[in-house]
Each structure stands twice: as structure tokens, then as C-alpha cells.
Amino acid sequence: MNYVIGIIGCGKIGRKRAEIIKKFPNSKIKLVCDIDIKKAESLATELQCGSTVKWRDIVNDKDINIVIISTINDSLSQLTIDSIKNNKNVLVEKPAGRNPIEILKIIKEYKPRKNKLKIKVGFNHRFHPAIEKAKEILFNENIGDIMFIRARYGHGGRLGYDKEWRAYKDKAGGGEMLDQGSHLVDLSRYFIGDFDKSIGYCKTFFWDMKVEDNCFALLKTKKGQIAQLHASCTQWKNIFSMEIFCKTGQINIDGLGGSYGKETLTFYKMKYGMGVPDKFVFDWETDDSWEKEYANFIESIELNKEPNGNIYDAYESIKLINDIYKWNKSKKPIFNYRISIKKDVSY
């Protein structure tokens, strides 16, 4: 099957998506859109395709069967809904909406169409080589159940960061917890499964903005497994670190490549008599997660199955994040807010 693509949002991520799509011979970009016509025209020149400032030109185009949505957060939900209504498959950047209600609206529109269309949410971290290796180890090595996860994800911003769209709650929906923190929550769910409780403190220590620049979160499953997460944009040296502690083994993931450092996985396997564990180290020079994510999206369309990192995953993650915001505001647990998706909408 051939795919005709429209991209809405020609910023850094939209351009990155375009570069990935060019590698797939069965995918052709027909039209790109941005409210800044210069950005749209610049990308269109490179791709030798059309450009527009009107996003409806893309969702109404009958030739286009995939829409890539890489706008700021306040547009993600509505653009996804309108694309689905016009029979487009959608790859929308995380978090797919600013709050659970916005994502639930997508799900309700998607539900009757899910056997014909697919929605992929941009959780590309699931496809990083170290994350895939960790899943392989957890599946193949006899190291018992996961007891807890400890993870940190942070960057240091840049001059003027507090004046960018991410600093405004009405545009972003939240601060660092919703930005990089959504990846930490998604990966924790990817490894452990569903969490039933989430609490945390959201603080603004440095940047002059109404949203948080740091969040310290705890997630708990019904079985008592814990994820301890810290997302920060006052991490002056970029960091990604995720440690997975099992009954008889430990997996440490460090780096994502680039400014986050070489991607490395260290696996410690406990010996029968305990003591110093056996140690195995893996590292990767390149990151092909974006290619693998797009390939998974195409596969989900062709095989009519949910992609790895779907709209339901986005919904479950943002409910946990929203609970953290509510708990932080009230300073007491509000776990009765949690709504089971099974009551909201049938899968």
C-alpha cells in the first residue's frame, strides 16, 4: 500500500518526521502546513511538495491518507479529531492533548473507526535500542518481577525558555511533568503495566513561568510496585536515566544519544549466593527509534492492529499526570478522581 502524507507543523519535530518519512519508498509527502508560511515554504522546497497555512487543506485532501500532527499542545486534540473525521490515519506528537478530557474526545471519535483507521502517539522512546533491549532482558532472563523503577529526565532550557509556548499553561497544558515527564510515565507503564495511584510535587524553582520546571512523582500499581520519577528543565547537563529493579536483577539505562550522552544499558544479574552480580554492558552509537516508530505505525495500519504507543496509552498516562497536578494543588491524595477507561469507552 502507498501512503500520501500531510504534515501539520513544520517546526523541529515536523521536520524530523519529514526526514524519516523520506526513507520509506511507499510514503510520499504531498503537503505541509504551518501558521508561519516561511517555515512551511522552506520545508516544502526541501521536500518538493506543496505548502499551506491552512490545516484544513490537509485534512480535506482526498489523496492524503496519513496526517502527521506536530503542533503545540493546544492544537493536538482538535487536529486529530478533524483528521479522523476526514478518514485519515494520524501520527500525533505526545502528549496528544493537554488533559484527559481532550484525549477522551479523540478516543470517542476514534472508537467507531478503529477497524479502518489508526492513531499513533509519538512515544518514540519505546523504540530506543536500550528500551528494546531492556524489554528483551525482562522477557528472556529469569530475574523476577519488577519491584520498582527510578528514573530522571532533564535538560537545562535555553535563553528565553520562559517566553516560549511551553511556559504558558493554556498552550502547553502543564510544565515539565507533561513535557519530558510524559515519556517517563509512558515508559514506566510500558515496563510495569497500569498504575492505580499517582502523587507528586510540581515546583517552579528557576524559570519565570506559571508552569512547573521540576516535578517529583510517585506512581503505584495495585500490586505495590513503585515508579519514582523526576522531570526537570533545570538539569544543567542533560540527563536520561532509568533504573529497573527486579527480584534478582537490575537494568540501568543511561543516555539517549546526542546531548544526553551515549545510549548505554548495563544489566546486573544476581548470583545464586548473592554478592557481586554478573555485569553485562551494551551501548549504541546511533538511534533509529524514529524510523522504527514510523515503521510500527505503518505496520499497524496494514495489519489492522493497535500501534505500540497508541491513543489509549496516551490517555492512561495523562490521567496519571493530571492526578499529580491535582494532588499537588490540594496537597492531599485525590485517588477517587481516577476514572477507569473501561467505564469511559470500550476498546
Task: Describe this protein's structure.
33% of the residues lie in helices and 25% in strands. The chain is globular, with a radius of gyration of 20 Å. Strand 12 and strand 13 form a beta hairpin. The strands form 2 sheets. Strands 8-9-10-7-11-12-13-14 form an 8-stranded mixed beta sheet. Strands 3-2-1-4-5-6 form a 6-stranded parallel beta sheet, sandwiched between helices. The protein contains 11 helices and 14 strands. The chain has 2 domains: 141 residues, Rossmann fold (3-Layer(aba) Sandwich); 161 residues, Dihydrodipicolinate Reductase, domain 2 (2-Layer Sandwich). The chain is of the alpha/beta class and 347 residues long.
Q: How would you summarize this macromolecular structure in one to three sentences?
A:
This protein has 347 residues and is of the alpha/beta class. Helices cover 33% and strands 25% of the residues. It has 2 domains: 3-124 and 291-309, Rossmann fold (3-Layer(aba) Sandwich); 126-286, Dihydrodipicolinate Reductase, domain 2.
Explain the layout of strands and helices.
Layout: E1 3-8, H1 12-21, E2 27-33, H2 37-47, E3 50-52, H3 56-59, E4 66-69, H4 73-85, E5 89-93, H5 100-110, E6 119-122, H6 129-140, E7 146-154, H7 169-172, H8 181-192, E8 197-203, E9 214-220, E10 226-232, E11 239-246, E12 249-254, E13 263-269, E14 278-284, H9 289-303, H10 311-330, H11 341-344
Parallel strand pairs: 1-2, 1-4, 2-3, 4-5, 5-6, 7-10
Antiparallel strand pairs: 7-11, 8-9, 9-10, 11-12, 12-13, 13-14
